[in-house]
Amino acid sequence: MFEQRLPLTTQVLTKLAPAVERPGIHLGVWHNDETTSDELYVWGATRTIPSLGFVLEDIEPGLLVIKHRRIGGFGKYANVAVLKGEQVKIIDEQGASLPDCPDLLKSLRAFTTPATWQTSVNGLVQLAASMRSHGHGGTLLVIPDGSEQWSESIVHPILYSVAPPFSKLANLIKTKADRAGENEWEASLRNAVDTVAGLTAVDGATVITETYRVVAFGAKIKRAAGKQSVEQMVLTEPVIGNQAEVVPPVQHGGTRHLSAAQFIHDQRDALALVASQDGRFTVFAWSPCEQMVHAHRVDVLLM
Question: Which residue has the higher pLDDT, 90 or 121?
Fold first, then answer.
């Protein structure tokens, strides 16, 4: 780590960029206590980030994300704010942007309060981040354990049915309380998450249980017999100031989003996670209070 203190300017960052563009190397930025100005200074470069330090990540030109490291250091960093051009989105930590519907909040608990990511391994969040990062788009359906009703909304025969269910991810998450600090366990979990998320790149949906057991992939979603087509849904985003709005599913996305909305309309005890190739990520759940599908766009949490 170098110790030279430099004022934080575009010219300085441009000169330092080649030295820190390797994976795992970060710039250290802090106030200069020797002056009365509010300017930030580059203090050095480091391979480790303290739990209480903020990270400013340059995702792409014009897109910056402020985030912080999880307690314990494992898993997806928690986002604080997203800056895109002149638009600033502050993450809604308390889920206040969601309608007051307890059953819905229970369904979306993995994505409603990012602060909960700090104390446990949240499998759905890790899967969502991995799905978004592989860039191919995909759909992940989460069904209740022991349920067979979901198959009514799937075209048969299912292209890839997994019997017995693939349980590696489920077993690793189950042992988190005893082994969450072990490097070997963390590496195994990352590999299992990426394996399951990678299945979503296959044409069709991947189906897992609430306990993370993979039962199928490449599944084609259809409207269940006797069910109506989904006509509208509630759309929200976990940012401060967001207002829920009712929109037609076709207005929010393409075929993946429409089929996921239809699946949740028919299978109301399930959850659907949809990643677009452009980085958009939406979680679909049934809202018993609104009596319609609820689409919660969460890509601001996954960058």
Answer: 90
- pLDDT of 118 above 50: no
Nearest by Cα to 239 from 111, 77, 89 = 89
251 burial level (CB within 10 Å; 0-12, 13-18, 19+): exposed
* Residues in a beta bridge with 219: 205
Q: Which domains does the chain have, with CATH numbers?
A: 6-90 (no CATH), 102-302 (3.40.1700.10)
Task: Give dist(CA 42, CA 57) in Å, integer.
Answer: 15
Contact 272, 284 (CB under 8 A): yes
Query: Strands 271-275, 281-287: parallel, antiparallel or unpaired by DSSP?
Result: antiparallel
Q: Which residue has the higher pLDDT, 5 or 150?
A: 150
CB atoms within 10 A of CB 172: 21
Quote the pTM value.
Answer: 0.79
Cis amide linkage into residue 157, ω under 30° from 0: yes
Q: How far apart are the first and last CA of the chain?
A: 27
Specify whether the CB–CB gap between 214 and 199 falls below 8 A: yes
The angle formed by the CA atoms of residues 289, 291 and 297, to the nearest 5 degrees, is 85
The CA angle 168-169-172, to the nearest 5 degrees, is 85
